[in-house]
Amino acid sequence: MIMITGGSFNGKTDLAKNLFSLKDEEIIDCGSCDLDAIPGAKCVRNYELAVKRLFERGEDPLVFTERLKCDIIIMNEIGSGIIPLEKSERDWREMTGRAGCIIASRALTVYRVCCGIAEIIKGEKI
Predict the structure, then answer these.
(1) CATH match of 2-122 with 3.40.50.1820
(2) What is the pLDDT of residues 17-34, one digit of tens each?
(3) Domain-wise residue ranges, the chain
(4) How far apart are CA 19 and CA 30, in angstroms?
(5) pTM exceeds cut of 0.85
(6) What's the rounded Cα separation, in Å, for the pair 44 and 63?
(7) Edge-to-edge strands of the sheet including 2-6?
């Protein structure tokens, strides 16, 4: 498993496409896809939105995350910045961070992307 993380619009998906020769149809967007398609997908993006959707449905995003068998998971960092006033938003951010920890612990390589520049923060380039 490969994890690619970083801020919004920093080039994470482009990095995945270039490094792993992915086509658009091989990348599932977790904001709008069928949640059942995520666990075995080749590549998913916006995984933090899957966490949000699961959380809103009353499902445990961490149990779901443990079942992932994706090759590549792209996830926005959402824990920095202003702390939301709404408890549900804070809870979602916490669940997203915990899901990210699960993914990173299982990943062979973790990339962090900032301004289109990738840094390996765990493992080696694959």
Answers:
(1) no
(2) 999 999 999 999 999 999
(3) 2-122
(4) 21
(5) yes
(6) 17
(7) 27-29, 43-45, 72-76, 2-6, 109-114, 117-122
